Amino acid sequence: MSALLEVDGIGKNYGSVIALRDVSTVVNAGEVTCVLGDNGAGKSTLIKVLAGVHQHDRGRLLVNGTATRFTSPRDALDAGIATVYQDLAVVPLMSVWRNFFLGSEPTVGVGPLQRLDRKRGKQIAKEALADMGIDLRDVEQPVGTLSGGERQCVAIARAIHFGAKVLILDEPTAALGVKQSGVVLRYVAQARDRGLGIVLVTHNPHHAYPVGNRFLLLKRGASLGCMEKSEITIEELTRQMAGGAELEALEHELREVAAE
Hints:
Blueprint: E1 5-14, E2 17-27, E3 32-36, H1 43-50, E4 58-63, E5 66-68, H2 73-78, E6 81-84, H3 96-101, E7 107-108, E8 115-116, H4 118-131, H5 148-161, E9 166-170, H6 178-193, E10 197-202, H7 205-211, E11 214-219, E12 222-228, H8 234-241, H9 244-259
Parallel strand pairs: 3-10, 3-11, 6-9, 9-10
Antiparallel strand pairs: 1-2, 1-4, 4-5, 7-8, 11-12
Helix pairs in contact: 4-5, 5-6
GO molecular function, one term: ATP hydrolysis activity
Keywords: ATP-binding, Nucleotide-binding, Sugar transport, Transport
Protein name: Simple sugar transport system ATP-binding protein
């Protein structure tokens, strides 16, 4: 069976700046591919290529085994690839159920008599959120009253409801505390278990390792490798993320200075 999504030797330049160089990984159904790297590693550029915001300059992007070149985010959505960005694209003062649909609300009537089907919209949103483990008494409440983890869940449930096969999550735990991060990772695992292919973009190996199946490490736009979970421990993943060799060299240098 072909991977839902695959990048093979992907490269991207912005003028003379090499943002991505020879990056390869796969996203399979029912698995989580984690993309890790520090600021400036190329994570955002890779997301934008996968989401159709930018086109790649080199390599191949394959969807279900077929080489593809997205010309817009709509192309990616039509191919079943949904991206939940760090800012979530929610309207804090708007109700939970309206945020769930955001422009795709169910309606009744035709022509000038067409109007929102509020009852059906609220029911669909409530059921979809309940499937993800959030049972809200009132989906009319402003989404801004929800916790950070719950807002992430609204965005994830929305993507699943509208037919996503691949879900790209951009730093979903970056602004959350320990407890809320755990809540979001539970939702990620639920989406994985429903058969979606997940791309989890993060700079935190301790958030990636419990839910990840493979780990793509980026540094300055280049791949440091793409390892299956069985091939790397959390300690080694953390060491590589932290720049283990550089830290060891710095520690050695500081010891020499202290000894002088």
